[in-house]
Amino acid sequence: MRLHAAPTTRRRQKWHGWVAGLFPVAEPAGLPRAFVIGGYALGAALLSAVALLRQSGAPATSTVWAEDGRVFYAQALRMSFGRTLFTTYNGYAQFVPRLLAQIARGAPPARAAEVFALAGAISFALTAGLVFHMSKGHIAAPLVRVLLVAAMVLLPIATSELLDNILNVPWWLFFAAFWALLWRPQTAPGQAVAGAVCFLASASEPLVALFIPLAVVRTFAFRARREHAATAGLVLGLLYQGVARLVGGTKPFPPASLHGIGQDYAERAGLALLGGMRGSDWLISQNPTVAVAVGALIVCVVVVAGLSVERPLVTTHRAHQQRPRLVGELLRALRARRQHVVEHQATCACVSPASSFTVVAIAVPLPQKLARFDVQPRAFCLGLGR
Question: How far is Cα of residue 197 from the mean position of the Cα atoms in its chain?
């Protein structure tokens, strides 16, 4: 007589299998600690240099991004540190830019541009290094994770706004918070880092609240307190945002309509993925209809390419094949029609569409594609190996 598992038991097993695939534990590196530390230090230095060199025209160390100078630096000079932490801009707090502005405050005014550029580049490099480390559970092959980090620093739209300033550091932390919530560090320092990343991200950008569904799943999936450092950091950062909003009392950023989200995504996430801001702006100015069609085609090609690559099971859990898609789908609703002004020291200004608001919508779906090449890297046309 064959015995069948109770429906409740099967559902519980299916749930645990799905959770195991969503929050895998990475295997130890198996390398000497000094070698690992040296590798991360070298990678951070290289990424910082690339970020600084990617700015065209005037050097990054000779320019000051709009809000870096007229908002964060100016307020840091005339306000106390504690007051700046609870002074909102556009209706929300920017914890990390406020901290970095204090570094510039301590430097001579003539060196402020260098401080801002270096702070932005180094912050980006550190965040990219964390993404490389935290994504190991989902993407074990080091060379594939290198592609993930390369996609950050070489993002075509990154040169428009995202690099070498302190205002847009929270957008990189936004992406890092996604991985921090999926990461399962087995040491106390790692858990502290996961909590800090989520706190810094949510305390600097309230849109990180879109990761709450992922945090809720993690909360119900694990009972041990050590598993909830990232969730705690996310919650504390959002609480800080609420307090700052109450104390700040500034006028919030005007709400945008949800009309045209699909068009915006096709233009700023699809078309800009290959054309960058200049190419996208040129095609949009020449023929908006063609620009939307080309952008939508690029998005479809990327999605189909990612879904078409077969990925065999590597554990006994069927759910290990699944990758977190809910957050990526939610982030596709982010609209990118705000504008910023780039102010150079020579008081030269130019206006460009806000590419910073599309970085997460582009970056978050990328791991889903890269993870499919993880077990069989030879499926890459480049023939990457473990």
Answer: 11
State the DSSP code for 78: H
Angle at CA of residue 10, ends 9 and 12, nearest 5° = 65
Tokens of residue 254, six digits: 């005007």
Q: How large is the greatest C-alpha to C-alpha distance in the chain, in angstroms?
A: 85
Percent of the chain past pLDDT 70, that is, above it, reads: 72
Helix (H), strand (E) at residue 351: strand 349-353
Sign of CA dihedral 300, 22, 199, 153: negative
Cα first-last separation, the chain: 47
Q: Tell me how far apart the alpha carbons of residues 129 and 42 are, in angstroms, rounded to a whole number.
A: 10
User: Is the distance from CB of 234 to CB of 202 less than 8 angstroms?
Assistant: yes
Residue at 386 is within a domain: no
* Closest CA relative to residue 81, chosen from 109, 108, 101: 101
Angle at 58 between CA 53 and CA 63, to 5 degrees: 95
Say which DSSP state 267 is in: I
Distance CA 172, CA 156 (A): 15
Determine the structural domain holding residue 241 and report its residue range.
31-379
pTM exceeding 0.70: yes
Q: What is the DSSP letter of 255?
A: P
Rg, C-alpha atoms of the chain: 22
Q: pLDDT class for 251, splitting at 50, 70, 90?
A: low
Count of domains observed in the chain: 1
Q: How far apart are CA 175 and CA 201, in angstroms?
A: 9
> Could you tell me which residues are beta bridge partners of residue 341?
351
The residue among 109, 99, 108, 96 whose CA lies nearest residue 69 is 109
Tell me which H or E stretch contains 343: strand 339-343
Q: Where residue 243 falls among pLDDT bands split at 50, 70, 90?
A: very high
Q: 200 in a domain, yes or no? A: yes
**In angstroms, rounded to a whole number, what is the distance separating the alpha carbons of residues 143 and 10?**
37
Is the CB of residue 377 less than 8 Å from the CB of residue 141?
Answer: yes
* Residue 310 scores a pLDDT above 80: no
Range list of β-strands (E), 144-236: none
pLDDT digits (tens, 9 = 90+) for 356-371: 555 555 555 555 555 5
| Cβ 380 vs Cβ 139: under 8 Å | no
Question: Tell me, what DSSP letter sits at residue 69?
Answer: I
